[in-house]
Design goal:
The protein is of the alpha/beta class. It has 4 helices and 8 strands; from the N terminus they run E-H-E-E-E-E-H-E-H-E-H-E. The structure holds pyrazine-2-carboxylic acid and zinc ion.
Length: about 220
Amino acid sequence: MEKMAISDKDTLLVIDVQRDFCAAGALAIPDGDAVVPIVNQLAQHFRHVILTQDWHTPGHHSFAASHVHRHPYETIQAPYGEQTLWPDHCVQGTPGADFHPDLDIPHAELILRKGFRPNIDSYSAFLENDKTTPTGLAGYLRERGFQRIFLVGLAYDYCVRFSAVDAVRAGFSAFVIEDACRAVGLPGSVEATGQEFAELGVKRIQATDIQPCLESNFSSAGLS
Ligand code: VGL
Ligand code: ZN
């Protein structure tokens, strides 16, 4: 495919590149750390970058330990529908909730926190898992005039998936840069992600499909 030139109307949405999703983290995603250099490099080609941060209260409803006789990766019926249970992770203000120490995107313009309501999880950067509570991101993106959203980060089959799908539903074009993502990989989760992307028109691309921006390094000091 012809390389895609990135414009001022595009934004890179970096999903949950946090310690707890990387090696030795509480919810370590296989090979999760591998996205960091790829994301750092990609971010050089985008003037506009947004980071998301999974940001749970202690004892969050999505934690298996918050429910009696429940184990991580089981599914429960929440008032808003099915909810997978996870190990305690990304608790507000803890080291595990920090961004990966090697993530290097000083020009990121917004850090959007999600999953901070004790009784609702939020995989998507747009809508919480009840599918109705907005995070405000769609309004932010619209107000700033962004049209195309490029997604990278963790995890491909959860937060990247739900964010990409909701981006399209909110009227944006969504491009998931697949080699800049890694998956949790629960049974069927990656296959379901590909299927849903195809159904909804989320496009799947590779980092090499992005036209390198030759004119400037956006993270360098002095950029207006
Ligand atoms: C995520 C499970 C629980 C993710 C967040 O970032 O994909 N997955 N919380
Ligand atoms: Zn979470």
